[in-house]
Amino acid sequence: MRAARVSVELTLSERLARQIAAGGPISVAHYMAEANQHYYGTRDPLGAAGDFTTAPEISQMFGELIGLCLADIWMRSGGRPEAHYVELGPGRGTLASDALRSMASAGLRPRVHFVETSPSLRERQSALIPNVSHHDAVSSLPERGPLLVVANEFFDALPVRQLIRVGNEWRERVVVRPDPDEPDRFAPMAGYRRVESGIPAMAADAPEGTILEMPLAGSAIALELAHRIAKQGGAAIIVDYGYEGPATGDTLQAVRAHRYADPFLEPGESDLTTHVDFTMIGNMARQAGLRVTQTVGQGAFLRQLGIDARADQLSRTTPARAEEVEAARHRLTADDAMGTLFKAMAWVHPDWADPAGFEGS
């Protein structure tokens, strides 16, 4: 009699090790994609018990002001009733809940769509917003009606390709497992394949060891989303930490239990991100025919939308929370907190009104 087979599920480290053993080193983009897919698919990473806290979890003011910003654009652009609220990577749904509440106060009650693949987060989101429609990708969003899109800390978690300067050429940066006795430890190194296409002119003479990041996944999603807005009408607000490129440097980082961690240790157990190239995102939107605002700091963006007045109102309404409200306002807007590192940009259909919060753009 044959013995029954026992199925043993491999850990992510074991699966990656097998891939490397079978096919050689893997790209940083592949490593990052595998790690984050496992990470977000197996937990709720937000809050004090998780690994990090995002702006919507800090204060209701963040989502409220973004909702009012989108409602204002919608009203000044004709107020079509069949609008869709779309959020990419919506976390627990906190931002959407706050935004939809402020939209409703302005007479806008859009259908709600989340682009989210994590089963655990989908469950949390549905509990908070029962009428939400979930999507695995931008491609399955409704094809009729304007899209009012929010992407808060979405693009930073998408995989990026990394190149490294070796001598006078660029090579793919790859990931290996250097020591079989440390099964959860991986390491980056320069690959052997020379890369010649897609190198910006500013990096042509970069010194030895320079890292160049190419956000191919983010570019593709941004372009697809921008084409949808160009076809259907609408606007998008993107908030993330990042820079105005092109630029060089290794921005890959890991966060675990609210502390920085080694991104190449225990893949899938920490949040892997890179800084977002806002110039690239804006170029994708322009390529699709959208108007693009200037990139502004999150602090300036929220102040222009009225966070100071809203904070004062909340403090007067609930005096017992005045210190909490002030701490949240500082964290969201101050230069020594999230106000400068985090940035905001908007895309708008060419026939739609200019968004508030980006004056001078």
From TrEMBL:
InterPro entries: NDUFAF7 (IPR003788), NDUFAF7_sf (IPR038375), SAM-dependent_MTases_sf (IPR029063). One of its GO terms (molecular function) is protein-arginine omega-N symmetric methyltransferase activity. Gene3D superfamilies: 3.40.50.12710. Keywords: Methyltransferase, Transferase. One of its GO terms (biological process) is methylation. PANTHER family: PROTEIN ARGININE METHYLTRANSFERASE NDUFAF7, MITOCHONDRIAL (PTHR12049:SF7). This is ATP synthase beta subunit/transription termination factor rho. The lineage of its organism: Bacteria, Pseudomonadati, Pseudomonadota, Alphaproteobacteria, Sphingomonadales.
